[in-house]
Amino acid sequence: MDEKTRTELEAAAFRGLIKHLQKRTDAQNIDIMNLAGFCRNCLAKWYMAAADERGVPMTYDDAREVVYGMPYGQWKDNHQMEASDAQKATFEETKPLHAKISGH
After folding, report:
1. Structural domain 3-97, CATH architecture
2. Are 44 and 67 a contacting pair, CB within 8 Å?
3. Is the four-CA dihedral 42, 98, 24, 5 of positive or negative sign?
4. Which of 4, 5, 18, 100 is such that its CA lies 20 to 30 A from the CA of 91?
5. Domain map of the chain by residue range?
């Protein structure tokens, strides 16, 4: 497979993941983080880092809006629930497995 095709397939897969996460507002970031070691905010940080590597100006808020499909504050107000003590404990226990991302 040539590089251009690989990049196009990867981009399509990323767009599919973002679309799915925008639809699944019931999937809380802390649950995704506890299970998979990354969340929507991690995706936004990777997106912003990729933009930075290419000299494309982008703020963290810009990147989160791409991932969430709306301003983060709006998503948080509409969809984010308070994390339970059990979720917070699992978060702390799984920290060594969390994605290594600049600013995280």
Report:
1. Orthogonal Bundle (1.10)
2. yes
3. positive
4. 18
5. 3-97
pLDDT at 101: 84
State how far the Cα of 83 lies from the Cα of 90, in Å rounded to an integer.
Answer: 11
Please check whether residue 104 is in contact with residue 98, taking contact to mean a CB–CB distance below 8 angstroms: yes
For 49-65, what is each residue's pLDDT tens digit?
A: 999 999 999 999 999 99
Please write down the HEC assignment for all residues of the chain. Answer: CCHHHHHHHHHHHHHHHHHHHHHCCCCCHHHHHHHHCCCHHHHHHHHHHHHHHCCCCCCHHHHHHHHHCCCHHHHHHHHCCCCCHHHHHHHHHHHHHCCCCCCC
> Do the Cβ atoms of 71 and 61 come closer than 8 Å?
yes
Place of tokens 């984010």: 80
In contact, 93 and 70? CB cutoff 8 Å: no
